[in-house]
């Protein structure tokens, strides 16, 4: 059966390597912080000026002044440091972040990413997405394979305004894991009990076998 949100985040945590500096996007990616291996030294970075985030707080731990870029309450570590947004984006734009795990509305078969706006809808701002995809060493996307109408979100060409062109390295959906390669998407792993027929049915992008 397809992975749920937590299982997708748990699978995405396998992309982490010991010693990595990692930025987690808003939505499902923030759940990855709950699955960081205990023996790994991972430093989570947030665009709003925080380096070293812990897991989400329990009710007793909540500090309303301690938030991530998505305005969710978080915990701090003994080594956590705080700084301005300009310094935060200097880290991102300077290529000092090893991995960013982001949500998306659409991804194309060539690795184009659309995740910041839908025309006609109110947008608070583009946030740091465009800086992240331009400056971070590796980009992994977590998203549902299809939208609520059952239409594929893995497309031949994105229909929404792009965040970046050819920037996505790997996509983790509720159906499986896919790498962006020459010619389309290469299947890396299927979620339990998901079949290739289901993947083909719900994927507009070309799949390379």
Structural class category: alpha/beta
Average of the residue pLDDT scores: 93
Give start-end ranges of low-pLDDT stretches.
none
Distance between the termini: 22 Å
The CATH homologous superfamily name equals Glutaconate Coenzyme A-transferase
Query: H/E element string?
Result: HEEEEHEEEHEEEEEHE
List keywords for this structure.
3-stranded mixed beta sheet, 4 helices, 10-stranded mixed beta sheet, globular, Glutaconate Coenzyme A-transferase, single chain, alpha/beta, 209 residues
Structural notes for this entry:
With 209 residues, the protein is of the alpha/beta class. It has one domain: Glutaconate Coenzyme A-transferase, CATH 3.40.1080. It is 14% helix and 26% strand. The protein has helices at 5-12, 85-93, 129-135, 196-201, and strands at residues 21-24, 43-46, 50-53, 76-82, 99-103, 106-108, 113-114, 138-142, 154-155, 170-172, 176-181, 184-190, 207-208. A hairpin with a 3-residue loop joins strand 10 (170-172) and strand 11 (176-181). The longest helix is centred in the middle third of the chain and has 9 residues, at 85-93.
Give the structure's gist in a few sentences.
Helix content is 14%, strand content 26%.
Secondary-structure blueprint:
Layout: H1 5-12, E1 21-24, E2 43-46, E3 50-53, E4 76-82, H2 85-93, E5 99-103, E6 106-108, E7 113-114, H3 129-135, E8 138-142, E9 154-155, E10 170-172, E11 176-181, E12 184-190, H4 196-201, E13 207-208
